[in-house]
Amino acid sequence: MSNANPEPHRVDTVIDARGVRKSYVDGTRTVKVLDGIDLAVNAGEMVAVVGPSGSGKSTLLHLLGALDVPDDGEVTIAGHALGRMGRRELAQFRNRSLGFVFQFHRLLPDFDALENVMMPGRIAGMGVQKLHERARGLLVEVGLEHRLDHFPSQLSGGERQRVALCRALLLEPPVLLADEPTGNLDPESAEHVFELLLALQGRHGTTTVLVTHNPDLAGRCGTILVLDNGALAAPAADSAES
Amino acid sequence: MRQTPGGDRGRGVHWQMALPLPLTLATRYLKSTRRDAHVSFLSKLAAGGIALGVAALVLVLAGLSGLQGFLRDDVLARTPHLEIELPADGADVDGVVESVAAVPGVEGVREILRGRGWLLIQGDPINVQVVGFDGELPAFFPRSAEEAEAALAQGVFVGRGVALRWGLEVGSGVDLVSPRPSLTPFGPQPRIQRLRMAGTFETGRTEEQDPRVAVPLDTARRLFGGGGRRLEVRATDLETALAVAPRIEGTLPAAAELRTWRDLNRGLFFALELEKTLMFLSVFLIVPVAAMALVTVLALLISSKRSEIGMLHAMGTTPRDVERAFLGLGAMLASIGLIGGAVLGVGGAFLLDRFRLIRPPGDAYFIDHVPFRVEPGDLGMVVAATVAFTFLSTWYAARKAGSLEPTEVLGAP
Asked: Chain B, 307-346: which have a CB under 8 Å from a chain A CB?
């Protein structure tokens, strides 16, 4: 069970953030984005983080994804304290332990769908034949067996996000971080992609943090947390019911 | 082979995916340079510029090498391999000759005497270098078999060009004048020796302004006295001459001075090398300009691929691998230019030399065509300098790509 005020570290806690603060300098003023975030997410859990634009959702995701470093506080993912790792170690950690899905698919335009899905494995230095089979299997799983040779520019928005989802899950990372994965899709495609996300997350048992604006999608996650004024909180009862 | 879009993938993994990651990225990025018209144009400009620079360098250096080789051969044909200047106070010439001749690699040693004077032909004085020799005409007075056949045993040998210009023939009488005066009751008088022309030798292309004549040693002694006594040493070849020089030097009396063919022509060789170096530097300027275009291509490409680079970082690619990918891309573009330029330069030099395509006016220059000779060392230097310069330019751009922070580039679409 995840919460915004974690108890002492438990063995099955996969994401553990304590006292995380982050601010940015904008010209002459300092903007406090995250102000003492505490978060614990257990293995296999799916947590939705909602909040208004500019509330720091993406910043939180970047910190949990070892893409940025907090000004203060500590982030521990799957027992690894990110603050104690070097750049190379962090890169290796992101490769093996984290999967990312962004609002804009971020597929590599010079590689076709299958090659895009294989990419994390190539970065990990795995053999291409094995990767080929695994990537193909995932793309078949999301119904893209007829699009393997297609480049991102030849795919629809929904198909691109499905490829991005496969890519994020190729190495079966313990944690999936999704930043508005359906934010750029029409309602039908968004629904399809989200269904797939839920199905894959359930099948692979991946601990997932989903940042979204969409209250319907958030409501279908196990836990909803609201990020507002730099702090995380459980949603108010009336808003949760709605 | 890639299938057409729409079909299921019937093939295995594309070969580029089996390369090390930076090369996989670089080969695909190379392909992507063709997609964007602006990047494509700049890529061609950069590769073309490097090719042009390399081709120009190879051609210029080949032309200079050919020309210098010609001059060098011409000059060296008229220069002793080694020359020993003996002290004027009566050194034991025979002893020195014997000890030098015993050094391995030495083929012959004999005394020569050098001086300057005038050849009086039909009353006109011609400033000449006079070489007194003993026995056969020295090898540094090259002559044809016909000339050797027609030569007299005694007399003065003059260059073919001088003989032709003044209408001299074997047996013609000429006066050789020495600046060393004889004291007579009428005061100091120049020493003049009436000689018959004994034969001709091949006139070097470069010696028309300062012709040489060769006379028997005793004649030279009479005209110039005992000063300027030298030994001419002939080694098996030019390189051997340089190699044996230190050993010969060890056998010489203290005041004797040894000069190699390189010392004797130091000024000329220095001028030739200086000319080549300056030409290399000035023509090489094309390469940095092309390398700047290469930086521009990479900067444009990096800028257009910022979000991809961010995603690669997110997926765990190290900054170093991103850097290597762009280094690889730069190296590929530079290699296209380098190889193209080298082929163009070497091929062009071959054709220009083979078909003698550059022919200066015969009455104004001493060569009928410009010879081209591609020296492996020159080619190596061009390649090394181009690789170094393009690597530095590429490295600068690649470092920028490697240092991009993922959070800077993942936010925007």
From this structure: 307-308, 310-319, 321
C-alpha distance from A96 to closest chain B C-alpha (Å): 8
Inter-residue contact A164 to A111 (CB < 8 Å): no
Q: Which of B296, B291, B376 is nearest to B53 (CA)?
A: B291
Per-10-residue mean pLDDT for chain B, 413 residues long?
43 81 92 81 89 94 90 80 83 85 91 89 87 86 86 88 88 89 82 91 72 91 79 89 93 89 89 91 88 88 88 92 94 94 96 91 73 94 92 90 78 50
Cα distances from A226 to residues A213, A215, B35, B280, B334, in angstroms, run 11, 11, 44, 68, 53
pTM for this entry: 0.73
Instruction: State whether A106 and B308 contact (CB < 8 Å).
Output: yes
CA dist B339 → B46, B60, B383 (Å): 13, 17, 9
Tell me the backbone φ, ψ of residue A184, rounded to 5 degrees.
-110, 15
pLDDT at A234 over 80: no
Is residue A135 a contact partner of residue A118, using CB atoms and an 8 Å limit? yes
Its ipTM equals 0.88
Pairwise CA distance, residues B244 & B214, whole Å: 27
Q: What is the SS3 assignment for A56? A: coil
Task: Give bridge partners of residue A191 from the DSSP assignment.
Answer: none
Q: What is the 3-state secondary structure (H, E, C) of A75-105?
A: EEECCEEHHHCCHHHHHHHHHHHEEEECCCC
Angle at B284 between CA B280 and CA B285, to 5 degrees: 130
Residues 6+ apart with CB under 8 A from B131: B112, B113, B114, B138, B141, B212, B213, B214, B215, B220
